[in-house]
Design goal:
four-stranded mixed β-sheet; alpha/beta; single chain; about 20% helix
Length: about 120
């Protein structure tokens, strides 16, 4: 059941939906459903309803004011290796912060995401 007033679904821009899908399938095992050539929904992400990527000219970056989705990992080194093997670019290498460590990456369309773990 969908939780009332909780974040339920996320949408991100994609400059190349095929490349974005291939990246998330390889790095995180996401499953996609296409709704025409300009939108692809994802599921199996930890969100109640999932989300989607829509065709756009610009990517979302936290330094430009975009929202930052943060994944959790039990092993940052393993997750970083999978991100890089799938074509992700590390934009902030692993660093510590109070309560844990994390790194930031961009996927092929340039959207920025982060991965964290507790210490």
């Amino acid at each position: 059941m969908t939780q009332y007033e909780a974040i339920d679904y996320l949408e991100y821009p994609s400059t190349n939906i095929s490349n974005t899908k291939a990246f998330f399938e390889a790095a995180f095992g996401w499953v996609f459903t296409d709704y025409g050539p300009e939108y692809s929904a994802f599921e199996a992400t930890g969100l109640q309803s999932g989300g989607g990527f829509y065709a756009a000219d610009l990517a979302s970056k936290s330094a430009q004011g975009g929202a930052l989705a943060v994944f959790f990992s039990k092993d940052l080194a393993v997750t970083q290796a999978r991100v890089e093997a799938a074509g992700g670019i590390i934009v902030k290498p692993i660093f510590s912060f109070p309560g844990g460590s994390r790194f930031h990456f961009t996927e092929p369309s340039g959207n920025e995401f982060a991965v964290w773990t507790h210490e």
